[in-house]
Fold:
Amino acid sequence: MKRFLVGILLSALCFIYSPVYFANNLPNLGDPSESALSPQKEKQLGKYFMRSITSQLPLEHDPIINDYIQQLGYRLVTYSAEPSRLFHFFVIKDASINAITGPDAYIGVNTGLILTTQSESELASVLAHEIAHVTQGHVSRFYAEQKQLQLPALGAMIAAIAIGTRNPEAGMGAMSATTAGLYQHTLNFSRGFEQEADRVGMQILARAKFDPRSMPLFFEHLEQIGRLNSYNIPEFLQTHPLNESRLADAYNRSERYPHYKIKNSDDFQLIQAKIMTSTTDNAPELIEQLHAQLSKNPRDLKLHYAYTLALLKANKNNQAKQQIINLLETEPHNLILNLTYAKILQTTNNSPQAEKTLDYLYHNNPDYYPVISQYADFLISHHDAKKASIILKKCYDSEKSNDDYLLLYSKALGESKQLTKAYQIRAELYERYDNISGAIAQLKMALHYTKNNEFERQRIQGKIDQLEVTIHRKT
Structure:
């Protein structure tokens, strides 16, 4: 059992996906269907790509933050040219202001960008822009043109560029002269694709009932940041080239749409507050700053929630509890606030009330993954992993593409001694990132714990045989 739990921790470190933006621009703008890269090859490239860079980027694992970005992303995808396509939205824990797009429709935003946006429409404009890069074929057309590279080599090249987004010297040093030249080739043609992504992204934005003017407003905001700090130009402007012509074009296009007065959602404000407090290294100082700001803006939801979380981070749990109670008096049905209340109850050694709260939230919101995750995690830590595994099993079909879910589910199964299933779930994670030998090893462990079920043994062995054929074909 101990070896199994150690393996769980290693899996968490090594096999969570970490896609990164690649400057995916070619001169031949046109129909996305012109791409020569098949969906199967792009999916395979995504596996190599993610496996190569998984250790390079720190991902956000807070289920509330991730769920918010996914919900916002899919709201926009619904109004794109490919509403039924599977997109993967994720958050990178990085203070720099950037958004990234990789193969197989992986789109991520940095926590720094989320904090920098001055409205929910601005954040939506960034996601809409990245979605447009995918639907217009900018990503796949770049990869299709690199015919001289095998998929694993191309994945490794992208990983080197991933390092470069955080450490340019290390990134360029990791690439050969040839691959560095290919990277520069794409940069030379990036402006055309950026303007096309602006145009299509703005259409998506308007259809989803966000303010189209938020896109040029965000660009202008970044330019102002760059002018104030010329030695630290926002990464978004480095990976998404902006000039006066592009900015003017974005403003002109935005004026063609009706003007909406869009109010920021409560969840947008709460997500910004969560990121603000989770990234601070000095909770007492943040508490002082927020207290001063609240004296001037006593009804600001974002400030109140950030103040609550900062108190919690500074171990001022009773004060945090009173703050969250005050917030719930005005927002009694907000799930993020209720989950925070349950967390504070647990922190203040009121586990029975915390469990009662989580059970109530779960039964009234059985499809909201942040509730499922927090409840299951609570049950595991309070020696009821069996119940946690039952809860997690119910959402397998909807959450199986979520790595954090699979890790939590396998942990619940392992701690409740359902080892056959636990190792099978872990095998899914290994196979997802094309670590076939690792997946086979997990399945062999599952087989070891399957003693009295011949049908299950045959099924597992059949999967092992299938994966071994895959390895043989690659060699």
User: Anything to note?
Assistant: The first helix runs from residue 2 to 14. Residues 16-254 form one domain. The two ends are 34 Å apart (CA to CA). The longest strand covers residues 88-92.
